[in-house]
Automatic annotation (TrEMBL):
One of its GO terms (molecular function) is argininosuccinate lyase activity. It is found in: Cytoplasm. Its EC number is 4.3.2.1. CDD domains: Argininosuccinate_lyase. It is an enzyme of class 4 (lyase). Keywords: Amino-acid biosynthesis, Arginine biosynthesis, Cytoplasm, Lyase. Pathway: Amino-acid biosynthesis; L-arginine biosynthesis; L-arginine from L-ornithine and carbamoyl phosphate: step 3/3. Its main location: cytoplasm. PROSITE patterns: FUMARATE_LYASES (PS00163). HAMAP family: Arg_succ_lyase (MF_00006). NCBIfam families: argH (TIGR00838). This is Argininosuccinate lyase.
Length: 459
């Protein structure tokens, strides 16, 4: 037999493989609760404008209640012949309540229906992601506040550069995440318009109330153009771009956690519950969680490219191509949420090893720039000071010494303005404390930056 849903125009049934090939119910069922929510709003609106009777609306809602329960308890009979989540639910509704079920689709198309469902889904997803992101930020900021005097080497090129405090490093992570929060919030705001009423592409001949459905579903307004409403998935792309950046940030943190937990660095301990062992090497404790997060960044980046490529060159209005938006989008959401959850649990639980960090900061001439700045304060031009200190460092490299271990007489050999007060500026504590301005690594600055960061979380 031809399809119950559009069989009228067809002379032969859909090819069995084509039916499976074009169906999406195996994955778009993730939209079921949003689809039901949208249908309730649409039915209420059709009732308010007199297209449906109160009785019909009531039985639609009753039928949708049953369907929601069937889906939740995995009792729902998903059928490939019904293609997607929308037609599975609608056909089941008609089975349950009869003719009123057939009227639900009045003034509506799957095109505006799916555009609505994805927006509702993504709005919920963003809210959950923002919650986990905030939980992670809160943990990072607390750890930063506890480590405003914990000195570690700061790196450029992964070579020791200048001393910083661990709290300052952590607050750098927080800044990245704070921008991610902003990007996701922007995306949420832009996608929060209701496509219902656009119908297939041109609108509908029924006297619909788009303001009503928009308000019922918590959208800020109806979309302004029916053709655009059913076709563009830019909001999904925008979300994936924000998610890819967020994951990129998590991958950078992951890389640092992996390096820091190695025996060579030994800056932190990651609790056993976030690590796994080796089946052959009894001594191993591997930082699997950050490694996996680093790896999962690749999936999200891939999904972003998939969605961009899917949308590229599509003519107005809806095209079936867009059915392919769902799996990448759902996986972006799931992956990002899982990674945030893992990080929000793990990061606050790491133990910084202050002694190791300090030891690492003592090698590599981390205070060489402080010595150059000292010479500038004594009257040298910065380029000349740079040259003098470069020679002192070269001497230390040959003599296997550190700058602060050189006798004053030796230091004075590099420049006569050097005096006893040089030893204070060569200390790690002196170095960090001297960078005492907005955004600098001085412990006092880091403490107030942590307080300010925590306040910004009360959004
Ligand atoms: N399953 C479809 C999708 O996800 C729903 C819209 C189908 N519309 C259509 N005209 N075939 O895009």
């Amino acid at each position: 037999s031809t399809s119950d849903l559009w069989g009228g125009r067809f002379n032969e049934p859909t090819d069995a493989f084509v039916q499976r090939f074009t169906a999406s119910h195996t994955f778009d069922r993730a939209l079921a609760s949003h689809d039901i929510r949208g249908s309730r709003a649409h039915a209420a609106m059709l009732t308010a404008v007199g297209v449906l009777s109160e009785d019909e609306c009531e039985s639609i809602n009753r039928g949708l209640d049953i369907i929601a329960k069937e889906i939740e308890s995995s009792q729902f009979d998903w059928q490939v012949a019904r293609e997607d989540v929308h037609m599975n639910i609608e056909a089941r509704l008609t089975e349950l309540i009869g003719d009123a079920g057939k009227k639900l689709h009045t003034g509506r198309s799957r095109n505006d229906q799916v555009a609505t469902d994805i927006r509702l889904y993504l709005r919920d997803a963003i809210d959950r992601i923002l919650g986990e992101l905030t939980r992670l930020q809160s943990g990072i900021i607390d750890l930063a506040a506890e480590n405003s005097d914990t000195i570690m080497p700061g790196f450029t090129h992964l070579q020791v550069a200048q001393p910083v405090v661990f709290g300052h490093h952590l607050l750098a992570w927080n800044e990245m995440l704070e921008r991610d929060f902003g990007r996701l919030s922007d995306c949420r705001q832009r996608l929060n318009e209701c496509p219902l009423g656009a119908a297939a592409l041109a609108g509908t001949t029924f006297p619909i109330d788009r303001e009503m459905t928009a308000a019922t579903l918590g959208f800020s307004a109806p979309t302004r153009n029916s053709l655009d409403s059913v076709s563009d998935r830019d909001f999904a792309i925008e979300f994936s771009a924000a998610a890819a950046l967020l994951m990129t940030h998590l991958s950078r943190m992951s890389e640092e956690l992996v390096i820091w937990s190695s025996a060579q660095f030994d800056f932190i301990d990651i609790p056993d519950r976030f690590c796994t062992g080796s089946s052959i090497m009894p001594q191993k404790k591997n930082p699997d969680v950050p490694e996996l997060v680093r790896g999962k960044t690749g999936r999200v980046n891939g999904h972003l490219v998939a969605l961009l490529t899917l949308m590229k060159s599509q003519p107005l209005a809806y095209n079936k191509d867009n059915q392919e938006d769902k799996e990448p989008l759902f996986d972006c959401v799931g992956t990002t949420l899982d990674c945030l959850r893992a990080f929000a649990d793990m990061v606050p639980a790491i133990t910084p090893k202050a002694e190791s960090m300090r030891r690492a900061a003592l090698v590599g001439f981390a205070t060489a720039t402080d010595l150059a700045d000292y010479l500038v304060r004594k009257g040298l031009a910065f380029r000349d000071a740079h040259e003098v200190v470069g020679k002192a460092v070269a001497h230390c490299v040959n003599a296997n010494s550190t700058l602060e271990a050189l006798p004053l007489e030796t230091l004075r050999g590099f420049h006569s303005v050097i005096a006893e007060d040089v030893f204070e500026i060569l200390t790690l504590e002196g170095s960090v404390a001297a960078r005492d301005h907005l955004g600098g690594t001085a412990p006092a600055q880091v403490r107030s930056a942590a307080v300010a960061a925590k306040q910004r979380l009360q959004r």
